[in-house]
Amino acid sequence: MSKTNNFVFWSLYVVAWLIFVGLSIEAGGLVVNFFVSLYKPEFVQNLYQKLDLTQMYRESRLAFFSIFSFILIISILKSCLFYIVIRLMHGMDLLKPFSVFVSRQILQISYYTLSIGLLSYIARQSAKKLVHHDFVPSNLNQFWADSQAFIVIGAVIYIIATIFKKGVDIQSENDLTV
Amino acid sequence: MPIIVNLDVMMARRKISLNELSERVDLTLSNLSILKTGKAKAIRFSTLESICRVLDCQPADILEYKNEDNNTSKPLVE
Known about the structure:
- The structure holds two protein chains of two kinds.
- By secondary structure, chain A is mainly alpha-helical.
- Helices cover 75% and strands 0% of the residues of chain A.
- Chain A has helices at residues 3-39, 54-59, 61-91, 100-129, 147-175.
- In chain A, α3 (61-91) runs antiparallel to α4 (100-129) and α4 packs antiparallel against α5.
- Chain A starts with a helix and ends with a helix.
- The model of chain A has no long low-confidence stretch (mean pLDDT 87).
- By secondary structure, chain B is mainly alpha-helical.
- Helix content of chain B is 50%, strand content 8%.
- Chain B has a two-stranded antiparallel sheet with strand order 1-2.
- The radius of gyration of chain B is 14 Å and the shape is elongated.
- The model of chain B has no long low-confidence stretch (mean pLDDT 87).
- Chains A and B meet through loops of A and α3 of B.
């Protein structure tokens, strides 16, 4: 592999780490936000992203728990996705990339990306249904604005993973041909 | 796998070691070991040719077919 490619790979590895840390902090912040809005709703204004769903909690428990579950699951899935990306980049042998490990990781990445996309889409539709109520805050859309992008990327990664799996089979057959 | 590799039998008959065969056939020891232990998925005609030349034998002396499942399709010639 050329020096430029190696440099790009390691730069992406560092960027993936930074994104993972950021997403983990966001997921942690949202979990704290969830429990604070249950037990100490008056502190929500001082918390991460000022996501105040206390009015929703008072008016409709079902809407509150479903919307907050969507927000939490999506943010946790996003940090898990980047954890798998880091694991892939850490364990990948650039000289011999066609291994069962890499194939499995890419397949997992596609599953996570598709799950995030589909969940975001469902969440966005659910939030749209609740919009005629007064208790839906305006800053809610930021959590699932990129649902279609995730679905498209997930589908593309799934196709790549399938091709990669076939490549691993061919590689192992080639290795065992004398 | 129903294909059995009898390379070790032929090597014992010709009194040739794996190292010597590897040198004369121009194949790595690990590849010969894969072939000898029956882990190989395929064998090239060129490899088979050089093994047969060095061991002075026919491909049938090295490869053998043994039907493991008796319930499958019947052979064409009885």
